[in-house]
Design a protein that fits this description.
The chain is an all-alpha fold. It has one domain. The protein has four helices and no strands. The chain is elongated and about 45 Å long. The relative contact order is 0.17.
Length: 95
């Protein structure tokens, strides 16, 4: 479990750096897809929960879900920073 926590912590550090370094909305969306998309890094971690024993699943789920939500919130804040005022149709419902 500790190895998973360390891995998730490193993924979050990487995700936060990628969000901060995104130069435009397209780059920001690429970050979202990489971490939160259907085959994203954090999404793949969530998919692996089913392979764990039931007693381990809840704790592991919390370890993965909280950072995933934090990443999604960071992405949303960054989109709001980059979203042009003239383009009201940028969706925040893409996670």
């Amino acid at each position: 479990m500790i190895a998973v926590q360390e891995q998730i912590t490193q993924l979050m550090v990487d995700a936060e750096k990628a969000i901060a370094m995104a130069a435009d909305l397209r780059a920001l969306d690429d970050v979202r897809v990489h971490y939160l998309g259907k085959k994203g890094v954090l999404t793949e971690q969530l998919k692996q929960l089913g392979q764990l024993a039931p007693e381990e699943r809840k704790a592991a789920g919390q370890v993965i879900t909280k950072p995933s939500n934090k990443c999604r919130n960071g992405w949303t804040r960054a989109v709001l920073r980059w979203k042009p005022k003239s383009c009201p149709y940028v969706s925040l419902n893409n996670p």
